[in-house]
Amino acid sequence: MSSLTRSSPRNGPKEWLSRPAKKYTRTKMHMPIVDGVQKWLEDLRWMTEPECMSVLQGKSLSKNSGEESTLVSAAKEVKDNIDAIRNRAHIVSSEFAKLFKKIEKERWKYLRSGAVRITSQIRSLLHDINTSIHDMPPYLFEEEAVIMEESAKLSQYLDSLGEINGHKPHTLPLVNILTDLGQSFSAVVDMSLGYLIQNMVQAIQGENPYIIRSTISHLISLGLEGEHMCFLIAREGGVGTLFDLCRQKNMEFAHSQALRAIATVCCVSESIHELEKAGGVECLTDILCNDSSSESMRSEAAGVVAQITSPCLDHNQHITGFIENMEDLIRSLLDLCVQTSSNEVFLLATAAVANITFMDNMACDFLMQYDAARIMIQSCQLNKAESMFAKDQVATILANMAVVENCSADITDNNGIELLIQYLHQRPPSGASDAEKSACERVHQKAAIALTRLSKDVENAQIIVELQGVPRLVQLCRNITERNNSDGVLIACLAAIRKIASVCGQDQFTSVDVQQLIKPTLVDSYLICSQLEESFV
Asked: Measured between alpha carbons, how far is 83 from 86 in angstroms, rounded to an integer?
């Protein structure tokens, strides 16, 4: 037994194997009775069959998904064809520019190689067009024949010159031939793109939701590529078709997207004209005034209004139907400002209202009637105008309202002066983009303009002084960095300082400020402030 014992330093030897074994009695086990089906259903929740899941994932959930995928692919193919033609056209244009530069610099020995590249790229362009357009219309065939004829003229002319060894050929005939070829080239590209865009517009008139959504998405993408594409979309009836879509109740799934496409395209005068023909202003007003319209749809409609009323457009002052619907537009846009909790929606609505204030003097009367000053100021207190761009729109509205005496009272009664002074202290965030910096400049400028207009009233001017608005105005005049070297901000702040001084007296200013900012002419004060931090070494 000693060989089977184990020693322990603390307890002495333990005889692990010498202990008697316990006796166990055999008893019967009683298993609970469980329904097998019920047990299987419970276990099934936690069981997966990998092969089965793979098969299910590979199966289509819709019977028509294959057909729909084909149709959507066809819509994308049209967009791809447009991109291919445009890319080839850019190459041809660059070759034209190179050849004209060679002529200008009289590099005659390179003329033939440049002409060969142009004619080669034009043939490639025509091949792309013929590949993209299966049912070629007759007018495109005719234009292709013209461009081939002009290409042949260019080759024949260069062949007739013989060897160019320091010999200067006649420039005028060559320039004329290249000009005619360039015009034919532009015409065939324009016709081809117009034809393909026309096919996209026709696809929107169908009933398949997948095709309609996909095609509108492609139109938006094209519109973002430049004004010429917006012009072509408008010329081919895209604006009118999109408005027709917005009027169809059974197409509600595409209304918001269609409005976004309209806003994208309406950056050229041709699109605005098409909007007028389609009764677009009335349609937008109906959408904005309709309580059953979703916020998303109303915000997109507000975006269209903001776009077509943009001061950047040449023909925004006389849009058919706008004056007649101005009151309803302003009321519905202000309602949207109140109801929304989205910063983006608020920005679109305020941008539309701000642009409208530039179009007609009646706008301020309607703004006062529908309590716009209170709505703007309270919305800012609720942090709806968080971005610098939204603050820019609010400052614009308040500055334009301040022109009207009754509106000035509304701004003051709702603590608008305090908000405007806060806007003077705005600074772009660190790492801000150039657009944000420019927006901050506009906020400073328009806040200063609004304070200047409000300072016509002695009480308002006193409030500005009490709220320490004068030191910030002086700082913006004297510190180039604070105003981001903006002349507009400088002039607006100088005007505000002079107005406050004329109403409240010069006691609020230091002697240096009086000598530099108030007593000299506005031009002289501007020159003094703009040169404060410059070195003339």
From this structure: 5
Phi, psi of 100 (to 5 degrees): -65, -35
Which one-letter amino acid corresponds to residue 391? K
| CA neighbor of 476 nearest in space, from 460, 467, 461, 487 | 487
Confidence at residue 315, expressed as pLDDT on a 0 to 100 scale: 66
Q: How far is CA 87 from CA 92, 122, 183, 450, in A?
A: 9, 12, 18, 48
Contact by Cβ (8 Å): 319, 274: no
Nearest to 332, CA basis, from 353, 358, 318 = 353
Say if CB 304 and CB 264 are below 8 A apart.
no
Give me the residue label for tokens 């959408």: 287
Q: CB atoms < 10 A from the CB of 149, how many?
A: 12
CB atoms within 10 A of CB 213: 17
Query: Which DSSP string do the residues of 454-520 spell out, in sequence order?
Result: HTTSHHHHHHHHHTTHHHHHHHHHH-TTTTTT-HHHHHHHHHHHHHHHHHH-GGGS-HHHIIIIISS
Task: Give strand pairing partners of 14.
Answer: 6
| Spatial CA neighbour of 237 closest among 208, 195, 207 | 195
Cα separation, 416 vs 411, whole angstroms = 5
List 6's β-bridge partners, or say none: 14
Cβ atoms of 487 and 523 closer than 8 Å: no
CB atoms within 10 A of CB 228: 13
pLDDT digits (tens, 9 = 90+) for 437-452: 999 999 999 999 999 9
Query: What is the mean pLDDT, run by run of 10 residues, along the chain of 537 residues?
Result: 43 43 49 67 65 51 56 80 93 91 81 87 92 88 90 84 61 87 93 94 90 94 94 96 94 94 94 94 96 94 95 77 94 96 96 94 93 96 94 97 93 96 93 93 97 95 94 94 93 95 88 89 90 49
Tell me if 128 sits within 8 A of 85, measured CB to CB: yes
Residue partners of 324: CB distance under 8 A and separation at least 6: none
CA atoms within 13 Å, Cβ hemisphere of 213: 11
Provide the greatest CA pair distance for the chain. 126
Determine the Cα–Cα distance for residues 46 and 61; give it in Å rounded to an integer.
24
Find, among 475, 468, 503, the residue nearest to 489 by Cα: 475
The pLDDT tens digits for 178-214 are 999 999 999 999 999 999 999 999 999 988 898 999 9
Q: What whole-number distance in Å separates Cα of residue 458 and Cα of residue 361?
A: 25
Pairwise CA distance, residues 110 & 531, whole Å: 52
What is the model's pLDDT at position 262?
A: 97
Torsion of CA 207, 208, 210, 214, to 10 degrees: -50
CA dihedral (81, 86, 89, 90) positive or negative? negative
Residue 442 CA to its chain's centroid (Å): 19
Q: If you compute the radius of gyration of the chain from its CA atoms, what whole number of angstroms results? A: 37
* Residue keyed to tokens 């184990």: 6
User: Does residue 196 contact residue 78 with C-beta atoms inside 8 Å?
Assistant: yes
Distance from C-alpha of 124 to C-alpha of 103, rounded to nearest angstrom: 24
